[in-house]
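Late entry, evening session. Most of the bench is empty. Finally got around to the prediction I had been postponing all week. Sequence below, unchanged from the version circulated by S.P.
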Amino acid sequence: MTGTTGTTGTALGAPAERREGRHKVTGAARYAAEYPLPGRAWAWPVPAAVTHGRVTAVDPAAALALPGVLAVLTPGAAAGLGEPEDGTLAVLRGPDVPHRGWCVALAVADTLETARAAARAVRVEYAPAPHGLTLDPRHPDAYEPQDAGGQPGRLEHGDPEAAFAAAEVRVDVTYRTPPLHNHPMEPHASTAHWDGDRLTVHTSTQGGTTVASVLAGLFHLPEDHVTVVSEHVGGGFGSKGTPRPDVVLAALAARHTGRPVTLAHPRRHLPTTVGHRAPTVQRLRLGATPDGRLTALLHEVTAHTSRVREFVEHAAVPSRVMYATPALLSTHRVVPLDIPGPSWMRAPGEAPGMYALESAVDELAHALGTDPVELRVRNEPEREPGSGKPFSSRHLVECLREGARRFGWAGRDPRPGVRRDGPLLLGTGVAAATYPAQAAPSTAAARALPDGTFTVRTNATDIGTGARTVLAQVAADALGVPLDRVRIEVGHSDLPPAPLAGGSMGTASWGWAVHDACADLASRLAAHPGPLPAEGIEARADTTGTAGADSPYAKHAFGAHFAEVAVDTVTGEIRVRRLLGVYAAGRILNARTARSQFTGGMVMGLGMALTEHSTLDPAFGDFTEADLASYHVPVHADVPDIEAHWIEEDDPHLNPMGSKGIGEIGIVGTAAALGNAVHHATGIRFRELPLTPDRILSGLLSEGRR
């Protein structure tokens, strides 16, 4: 590791290389299922084969007869565990089956292959029960939740219904998004072993501190008797934000057999086991004056939730942030169904919500005959519309202007459906993006050693974002030392507690504590006479009461996305020619890893727009696209030209680094920019994702555009 510094003479902002990169490309980095502990066994779940009902009998005889099978855990095996707050962890407690794919038994064997064979040999009998699987806004059980992503489920200002009815220009449209699934490169996995009443788990999680706390409660242990190691995590995108059944089942099987046990979910188990992005039905009503001033904005979202645990896809929340209007309605309704529980997926709420909102804004621009960039600028608010708070910083207009300049927007022919290149229809689109800038309390310790090096410790989780590298930069900056003199320790629950890597708040939260600990240490060193003691000098920081405290400011990152597409009138295929994102996200702490995060999010947004979707089978309650052969994610060839840029933003109201989260804003506006580009190319408005060739061809045929 070199001691690269930024242009200001500090480590922050420099394009430092990832510290763990060499370990990952050489195979030295070890993941949760790769700890070959002596005597290790393997576990394989038996998923429920009914949509809803009860287990009436389990016959493990055929499984136990296989050589190498150690045990088959059946309903009731976890009856003595503590009651979890998250119902998805209440596996093997009793006979109830809340949804297809629920774990109804667990086979444990000497090898992975034997465990899999044993799971298939277990015979389970069921008493099926009636079930409901269809999302319908008119469902009799639909209700308004109290909470939507930490905000009220419903927010209303003025008289939005009357204002919309009186508007001179109106847009009333409904957009739909399908279920989406996290498919991290490393599927969910855990390795657990017991030493008396002490439990150690190696698990793929975005937050080891939370996992340790949850396991301690479930197994009736003091928290210091549970150690959670998550040194390397192969992606999560929200699906590993809280403990999942694999870690509970692995610990349960290890206790039952007295041996270390690894449970690694096969990819086909993930859709029904670890959460998904809930489908949404979103009605947008926009009212405006002829010169493009919004007079009413009504955003009504319906999504499904599970009967196991309530989860609200807070897709209407972005409408409380984006545009000035005297009359605003932002509301959610959820329909409880007999389905696997939805959960977090990259930019939950904002990704589907901004797709619908920014598509509707584009429709309004078309109805007004106004440039879509100028319409957004015209409705720029002075304060956050939902809360009335001033923004800590808001440079959306600058992002739109800079993006338009880089993209060549000024030369665009605004008429839809007029640009052709042989059988290809060409179009360009724009959308805005926003994501909250948050921080949670964290702790950290920093130690100066006699050899002139420093060790910084915090239980942060590096899920592939480069957290180790950026935290080392924060520490080096606060200490005023070269970057190569700082060593970072993360991913172990014996380290100072830290919040999860999620909500685009990991670096802001951990970095705040690291900065404070290192600043304190620097002060102590300045006052310390003579050489350091052999054990060095340590300083600790706890940001409780500061990070996450109520603020008089509305804190958000903003961005603008631009896209160019070619629509093939013969095949219906959409080819993305260009993607551009320009962001205002506070101080960029590492130019290299930041660009990677921005472009990664944009590619995920491309998948949301064009290829990714899942189908909940209405008869069986299963997701039919259960692997990467049927659930299509983008590849390099899907976007030949992708660029991410940012503007300089100095926001003193955030954290000591002046940074905002960047992991999720890249996905937020991409789908809408692509959808708007497809409309510009074809003259047809498609209001349901993804924009697959069959949908495009059907639209072209119905409009006579082929």
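Two things to note before I forget:
Residues 1-9 have pLDDT under 50 and may be disordered.
Residues 69 and 407 are 61 Å apart (CA to CA).
Will write this up properly tomorrow.
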